[in-house]
Write a structure and sequence with these properties.
This protein is of the alpha/beta class. Helices cover about 35% and strands about 20% of the residues. The chain has a 7-stranded parallel β-sheet with strand order 1-2-3-4-5-6-8. The chain has a 3-stranded mixed β-sheet with strand order 11-10-12. Strands 7-9 form a two-stranded antiparallel ribbon. Helix 5 links the parallel strand 3 and strand 4.
Length: about 350
């Protein structure tokens, strides 16, 4: 393929299997409310999901993955795992789907399971690490240790899979320093992908009871944004792709019916990148003047201006006029003041 060829677009076809095969009820978890699904989809539903999504994708410039999310996939029996994996095989053989990714628990990984997944075209495995601090894991009733995550990560990489390690911030006993240490350890363990989820107090969970009893206080939105901005910078420097910042906006979260408390926002990622730009531009608050013009990469101009114009409004406290312009010669989050 020529070096100048366009990179194919990547698409996931997500299939949510809420709390499937989970041996523990984590303190924060009610995936039926988080995912908006009440039950495991049937075979016909999964096939319909695949076919309807594939019908909207141009196969000529796309790479498509079927993604089993939401439960503990490798906690299913071997026969059940084979069954779900085989549903995708005709589409893989036809070249419509490239591979499968799945999420699972760190303590449900073995050589035998990995061999099974490899033989059925699974390419990416995401582990719900959540934290790599044992005290936080214990307080969250995860049922596994940081060592389990470390050992599972090594086995996954040794078998040639792409490793993803998901993390949560603001769990019971968590603090910014612990979340930063978890992010750094995720990098060290060789993950190429991650997801950052602020802990929310979802209805009908043990965490909700602790919150109502005054034993747990979630991060507020500003804290969650600040923490996530520090973590995002760590992952970007290490070239670890952050697949998701914040929870998927299910109807229950959008309406507030399933959310008791916590830092949920429909534009959470935009808030986090706005915060990174705020930190970059804040030193100019020490200056004053008539006009400040800031050149930024084209794909960063909205973030630099900030969610609801926050960064522009900040600078207008010191400057009469604030202009943001795009400069295609600038990359990542470089900028120029002119």
């Amino acid at each position: 393929m020529p070096e100048y060829a366009m990179k194919k677009k990547h698409f996931n076809i997500p299939v949510f299997i809420p709390e499937a095969a989970c041996p523990f009820q984590c303190i924060y978890c009610n995936q039926r409310k988080i995912s908006g699904r009440l039950q495991i989809p049937s075979d016909d539903e999964i096939i319909t999901i695949m076919e309807e999504r594939l019908a909207t994708i141009d196969p000529s410039d796309s790479e498509v993955e079927l993604a089993y999310f939401g439960g503990n996939f490798t906690g299913f029996s071997v026969e059940e795992q084979k069954h779900y994996l085989q549903l995708a095989q005709p589409y893989i053989e036809a070249g419509q789907i490239m591979s499968i990714r799945l999420s699972t628990r760190p303590d449900y990984i073995s050589t035998e399971i990995l061999d099974l997944l490899k033989s059925h075209n699974v390419k990416s495995i995401e582990l719900g690490a959540q934290s790599l601090d044992d005290a936080v894991l214990k307080a969250s009733k995860r049922g596994h240790t940081a060592k389990d995550t470390e050992e599972a990560s090594r086995m996954i990489l040794d078998k040639g899979f792409t490793l993803g390690l998901q993390m949560m911030i603001g769990l019971p006993g968590d603090m910014l320093e612990k979340s930063i240490a978890t992010a750094q350890r995720i990098v060290e363990l060789g993950a190429r992908e991650t997801r950052i989820y602020p802990t929310l107090v979802i209805k009908d969970t043990l965490l909700e009871k602790q919150y109502r009893d005054g034993k747990y206080q979630p991060l507020n939105l500003d804290e969650a944004v600040h923490w996530s901005a520090q973590l995002l910078k760590i992952f970007e420097v290490a070239n670890v792709k952050v697949l998701k910042l914040g929870l998927h906006p299910s109807e229950g979260l959008l309406s507030g019916n399933d959310l008791t408390a916590g830092p949920w926002h429909p534009s959470f990622r935009e808030l986090v990148i706005t915060e990174i730009w705020r930190e970059k531009l804040a030193p100019f608050m020490k200056k004053t003047g008539e006009t400040i013009t800031i050149e930024v990469p084209p794909d960063q101009i909205n973030y630099a201006v900030g969610y609801e114009g926050r960064n522009r409004k900040m600078l207008l406290k010191k400057f009469t006029q604030v202009k943001f312009t795009s400069n295609p010669l600038l990359k990542t989050r470089d900028f120029k003041i002119i």
